[in-house]
Design a protein that fits this description.
This protein is of the alpha/beta class. The chain has helices at residues 25-33, 46-55, 81-84, 105-119, 131-138, 142-149, 165-176, 197-212, 227-232, 262-272, and strands at 2-7, 38-41, 62-64, 69-73, 89-93, 96-100, 123-125, 154-160, 179-183, 188-192, 215-221, 235-240, 255-260.
């Protein structure tokens, strides 16, 4: 049975502090040698993920901005994606068949601006901040910060109060506009209500099933916005967070792996690699 891995990036495949992939690199190449696809499923943008895809020689589909869209290289499957996916819009962009589950960036921004104005809440996303401010908050170098700010379907809230009663009102106003706000490992992300890591995983799983028949899907993550991903696969794994704890979950089917971020990721990967 063919295995397919769906993985979060920050704090899972990548080091939480410095975004390094050095710990997992060898395991990723071993998986590739055994034709086990590693599918990125992250809050990161297309531009950000392209960097890591190139660095790790990854040529597989990937899921961007918390499940807002699925990017599939043209010709990856032996069929046209648009012929098999009828529930969502499929467009061709820059050599990818793109399945759009979420909303456009402009609609997301309009929703944020309207909601924060009504609640009188001070919140700032990438669009509101200078490159220097983004670098200071995210600890990203200029090139990486610019990639993170190049968004197509969502906005990340980097600065401002996100624990007040006003923030709850803000979230409710977003819901009324068919938007949602989810918490990641570091920041909150606002996106279309249809955006969902789990739903995006299910869409891709269906396509892999068409090609290979029965498959085994594995998911890895570390934070609350990864739960839809972990619940959409045959076996979900939680790696430890930076402080050594695991996200508190009620779902007993999700296994907790010892190892912070990439170290836990490698343990799961090695269990799938044939000697």
């Amino acid at each position: 049975m063919k295995s397919i891995i769906f993985t979060d990036l920050d704090g899972t495949l990548l080091d939480f502090q410095n975004y390094s992939y050095s710990v997992v690199e060898s395991s990723v190449y071993q998986l590739q040698a055994q034709f086990i696809p590693v599918i990125f499923c992250s809050s990161k943008t297309k531009t950000e993920q392209q960097y890591y895809r190139k660095a790790l020689h990854n040529t597989h589909p990937f899921i961007v901005e918390n499940g807002s869209a699925v990017f599939i290289p043209v010709g990856y499957f032996p069929f046209r994606t648009s012929e098999k996916v009828t529930d969502y819009t499929v467009t061709e962009i820059d050599g990818f068949e793109v399945i759009v589950l979420g909303e456009t960036f402009s609609k997301v921004r309009q929703g944020i601006e309207q909601a924060r104005r009504e609640v009188d809440l001070q919140l700032w996303g990438y669009t509101d901040l200078s490159l220097k401010e983004i670098m200071e908050i995210t600890h990203l170098e200029s090139e990486f910060a610019q990639r993170a700010a190049t968004r197509d379907f969502s906005e990340t809230l980097l600065k401002g109060g996100k624990s007040s009663e006003k923030f709850k009102e803000f979230q409710e106003l977003l819901v009324a506009q068919n938007l949602s706000c989810v918490s990641g490992g570091k920041f909150h992300t606002v996106m279309g209500a249809g955006s969902d890591k789990g739903r995006a995983v299910q869409v891709l799983t269906k396509l892999f099933n068409i090609q290979f028949g029965r498959i085994q899907t594995i998911g890895l993550g570390d934070s609350a916005n990864d739960l839809p991903l972990l619940q959409a696969v045959d076996q979900g794994f939680l790696v430890q967070r930076q402080d050594g704890s695991w996200l508190d979950v009620d779902d007993e089917s999700i296994q907790k792996v010892k190892g912070v971020g990439p170290e836990g990721w490698v343990k799961v990967a090695q269990s799938l690699i044939s000697v």
